[in-house]
Design brief:
alpha/beta, 7-stranded mixed sheet, 11 helices, 17 strands, binds pyridoxal-5'-phosphate
Amino acid sequence: MRDFHMSDPVAHLRRMQPDTAVIYFCPDVLQATARRFLTGFPGLVTYAVKANDRTEVLENLSAAGIEAFDVASPAEMAAVRRIAPGAALHYNNPVRSRDEIAAGQAAGVVSWSVDDPAELDKIAVAAQGAEVAVRLKLPVPGAAYDFGAKFGAAPDLAEALLRRVADLGLRPAMTFHPGTQCEDPAAWVAYIHAAAEVAQRAGVRLARLNVGGGFPAHRGRAAPELERIFTAIAEATRSAFGATPPALVCEPGRAMVAEAFTLAARVKAVRADGRVYLNDGLYGGLSELRDMGPLDRLRLVAPDGTPRSAAPEPRVVFGPTCDSLDRVPGTLDLPGDAAEGDYLLFAGMGAYSLSIATRFNGYGLGDPVTVAEL
Ligand SMILES: *Cc1c(COP(=O)(O)O)cnc(C)c1O
């Protein structure tokens, strides 16, 4: 289908009547979010590529002034290098094959993270002249996923690793990741104080402290106040490190990209008992609905673009594949006059949608359609 550069998603739906799910991208929204981070965060802003690795995302972030990227694989390094040859690469997947390490070195990675002595030995030569950030883990409540369950060194191990990083002549840093969609600044505050303690016990002065991603997107409740988190991070760093604070780094994925995309799925059928079948679901752009709870900002429009406005009713909603797991958990509140052929628009769908969607059963998402506004 040709992209007519429509002004907004409903205009595109009305004109094209797409019978496949469509995801819409608004570059202005993405660039405005990037500027919000660049203005508000008290340090270097990097983008976690895994949240959405589309070329148009990387290009617009680069145009907005993002000059460093958090990458986890050689393919992500190549994606960044294609659009920003001079960008700084931070390779923060702490488990790497030897071939991946060689790829990181060849790509000029400037920062590596580590959470295990054997992994540190593996990168010690490739990381000469670069920064190595010890990844700390604490049990942190309040995030949708506990990232500490997979990666990170507990404080005693982190202290030993940090000493060894310094002994190897590498630039010592620390990092943590509080978990994704983390709405409570207290998670960052706890980590920053714990990192300062580890560094002090190791007797190592940190060049930088990377406070991870995990910043919340607008999802389910009011729009999050990122600035409150930025302020808490700045204050905690001052109080934990005193006169010689490390430079700060952050690596948002979700909060950077979520708002810049809206997903539209078509209603394939409404059964007599009220169940709704969409042409996108958990194997496509909606996979996060399984783990992340409900979305609020839904709009249902008729094929001619008129909003459906009958009183909302809770509906069981299925995706299009033949797998019975392909069902939105719980129910979605949809207008009571929902009908076959309508389009359901989900706001805030830029993160972990395109990057995760499969082609299972011949469904999934195509290339985004660029719009002037969402
Ligand atoms: C996934 C990830 C991020 C981005 O997380 P968001 O919750 O999307 O902000 C940042 N850093 C690391 C190390 C990650 O694994």
